[in-house]
């Protein structure tokens, strides 16, 4: 990607996106990053060869970063997104596309804090981007054209799968893929606890649960893999796995997972509402 790209804020998620993008072939010379602390700026500049500016040393770091940028990634916390948009609004090029990775910040809130007609994209990435196995859902504002959307896809493509969804589905995406890694980790915790209940030493229980969940995830990541088919392949008639799955069904595990996802989606909607009143 030859377009200049600006990352305003670069925490762990932003760094994962940055690393994947550079690994996919983007030149470090085309990237500008802003952070608060000089130490963090030095770390990013040294690790990735990008231009990194610290607010504590340069008050107009964000303005410098977005000047001439074709893609601007907003990586600050949701509560700070509107103020950041207002800060950079007058210095964005008309053809720039602004991409927010902040959860629950709506397209309307982004567009309302920028100049009329500025292209904006709302994204929902998840933490497996850090290992190149993430998934990112993008929703476009009313002014985004196909070239701007393609540029946004290119930013994330090095770190995982990129999907386009209507904004009204973003809360569902958040509930499944955004929060989903925590569900998998929770499952691994529960499996380890079950193993200790069966008499295994805690350290062995931890290894068994961790490697089983991680290995199953790799199998599911194979091209063409389908979860139901993989499950059936492990489930012999009248075998041990079948008994475990039958117990899960009797206890309503699918309904429990569904209820959790509904609760996560409802909370995402509430956060959007709360941010709209600030």
Describe the protein in words.
The protein is of the alpha/beta class. The chain has two domains: 5-167, Rossmann fold; 178-265, ProC C-terminal domain-like fold (Orthogonal Bundle), CATH 1.10.3730. The protein is 53% helix and 14% strand. It contains twelve helices and eight strands. Strands 3-2-1-4-5-6-7-8 form an eight-stranded mixed sheet. The radius of gyration is 21 Å and the shape is elongated. The model has no long low-confidence stretch (mean pLDDT 96).
Sketch the major β-sheet.
8 strands, mixed
Q: Averaging pLDDT over every residue, what do you get?
A: 96
Write down the overall geometry.
elongated
Instruction: Tally the structural domains.
Output: 2
Gyration radius over CA: 21 Å
Q: What class would the helix/strand composition place it in?
A: alpha/beta
**Count of individual beta strands:** 8
Proportion in helices: 40-55%
Measured between the Cα atoms of the first and last residue, the distance is 36 Å
CATH superfamily of the largest domain: NAD(P)-binding Rossmann-like Domain
Low-pLDDT stretches: none
How many helix segments? 12
| CATH architectural grouping of the largest domain | 3-Layer(aba) Sandwich
The name of the CATH topology of the largest domain is Rossmann fold
Strand content: 5-15%
Order of helices and strands: EHEHEHEHEHEEHEHHHHHH
Q: How do the strands of the widest beta sheet line up side by side? A: 3-2-1-4-5-6-7-8
Task: Return the CATH class of the largest domain.
Answer: Alpha Beta
